[in-house]
Each structure stands twice: as C-alpha cells, then as structure tokens.
Amino acid sequence: VQLQASGGGLVQAGGSLKLSCAASGSIVSHNIMGWYRQAPGKRRELVARIVGENTPNYADSVKGRFTVSRDNAKNAVYLQMNSLKPDDTAVYYCYILIQGTSYWGQGTLVTVSS
Question: In degrees, to the nearest 5, what angle opens at C-alpha 33 toward C-alphas 57 and 106?
Fold first, then answer.
C-alpha cells in the first residue's frame, strides 16, 4: 500500500488549504483514513480521521475549522483546513489503517504565517 499526499504550502493566518491523499495497492474496505501532523519539536498528533464509511473524528484544536472527507471510489482522503493559525504549522501525514496495519504518506508541509 502506498499513499501520496499533496496540497501543502505557505498561507497567511486565517487562510485555507486543502490537502489530498490517494492510496494505491491492496486496499480493502472497512478501513480508517486520516491525517496526523508533527510540528517542530513536538510529537506526532492525530488531526482528523474517518472511521468506516463516514464517521469523522477531530482533534479538539481543529474542530469547527477542519473537515475531513473521503472518496472510497478513489481510495482518497482529504483535509479542508480553514481559519488556519500559526499553531497549525506542521508536516501533515496521511495514513490508512487496514486490518491493524498502518501505512503512511510521505508528509506535506503546511506553514501558516502570522
């Protein structure tokens, strides 16, 4: 299984970005797809994920600002990020959990300037 993420970049505080991630390989249904992030000097943390068909979970820090979605036909997961803050600056990693095994994308850098 391979994941390819895209969509990171530099944005001013209050702006928006949309991250995309496409999975390829032996993808089975009933999986979890989502996003983690890791800021400099900090641990990797869960940002958002979709469990099953369409049950989203969010970190408290992004609730109301970020929206996670998926396209099962494309094995893709997306992260719409609005009202971005400097604290959102991090490398964002998409992942998919299939039958107890996690697969990770290469990471995409999001930088939010104040």
Answer: 120
In order, the DSSP letters of 55-77 are EEEE-TTTTTTEEEEEEGGGTEE
- CA dist 77 and 3 (Å) reads 10
Burial of 36 (0-12, 13-18, 19+ CB in 10 A): buried
CB 47 within 8 A of CB 92: yes
What pLDDT, on the 0 to 100 scale, is given for residue 54? Answer: 81
Cβ pair 44, 102 in contact under 8 A: no
Q: Is the dihedral of CA 8, 9, 14, 18 positive or negative?
A: negative
For CA atoms 55, 73, 23, 6, give the dihedral sign.
negative
Evaluated on CA atoms 66, 58, 52, 54, the torsion sign reads negative
Low-confidence spans in the chain with pLDDT less than 70: none
* pLDDT digits 0-9 by tens, 2-33: 999 999 999 999 999 999 999 998 877 778 99
